[in-house]
Amino acid sequence: MYKFPEDLELEELPGNIYQELLDELDVDNNWINLGEYVAKQLELGSRWVRSLEGRGIIRGRVSPADNLLCQLSIRMCTVGNLGELLEDCGLFRALSILRETESLVITRHPNFPCQQVKVSLGRKIQLICEATGLPPPSYAWYHGDSILNNAGAKELNLEITREDQEGEYKCLVSQVDIEGRILEELISESVYVTVNPTPIVIERQPLRFVEIRKGKSLVLSCKVKSHPEPIYQWFRDNTKLEMQTSNVLEIENFNANDEGKYYCYMKNPVSEVCTERCNVI
């Protein structure tokens, strides 16, 4: 439904409304989109579109958008006609100046068709959130509680290069009027992205040989790359050491009974490995 009579001529619009239309058509050169569409429908040619850029060429107008609306007025364009043109061109923010607000509705959530997406490192995925409403919806994507930069479209394209990209993704859909006021906000249903497990790769082995004095502390460590983090278990001479279940082994007050060959066993869902033996005396 229009805010004004559909048969109202453009130049009869209230001055503030007419100026809002001009401002919105000047944003991102939206007037070109509309001008090219009009030129195509009326077979006016590209030269006519270029002529709109000339300051003062057409009836002394000062901007291409103003020149364009003037040309539409000359051709007896009404509010209803302009509304149809704007809708055909996808210029919904400009259309919202002429039409009544339409409530925001999310028509597609990111978790369609599945609530969990499994992906391997190095692969790309696309999440989609779609909504309808007037003014048109704007989108902001979140990973957990953190907003994602450069993610203001209904499609979120992700290249999974790190394990920490795993987690919950959702979209905040907003409806903002021409003056920048938030009219309505909706949060989509979430989708959970799971990064497939990767084999364990040992990046640093324990020392091959350690000599330590009685009463001192023994510290051995290893470093691995793995997703998810593996389970660690240290052994001495094939005997499992209780409470030694991290990548760092520490034994205080070392004595002769602690001498032996130490190694760490690691396991995750897709692999299991052991470090090299460390001879401790």
UniProtKB/TrEMBL annotation:
The gene is HMCN2_1. It is a single-pass type I membrane protein. It comes from the Eukaryota. One of its GO terms (cellular component) is cell-cell junction. CDD domains: Ig. Residues 110-188, 199-275 form the Ig-like domain. Keywords: Disulfide bond, Glycoprotein, Immunoglobulin domain, Membrane. Its main location: membrane. This is HMCN2_1 protein. InterPro entries: Cell_adhesion_signaling, DEATH-like_dom_sf, Ig-like_dom, Ig-like_dom_sf, Ig-like_fold, Ig_sub, Ig_sub2. GO terms for molecular function: cell adhesion molecule binding. It is found in: Membrane. The keyword Glycosyltransferase does not apply. GO terms for biological process: cell-cell adhesion.
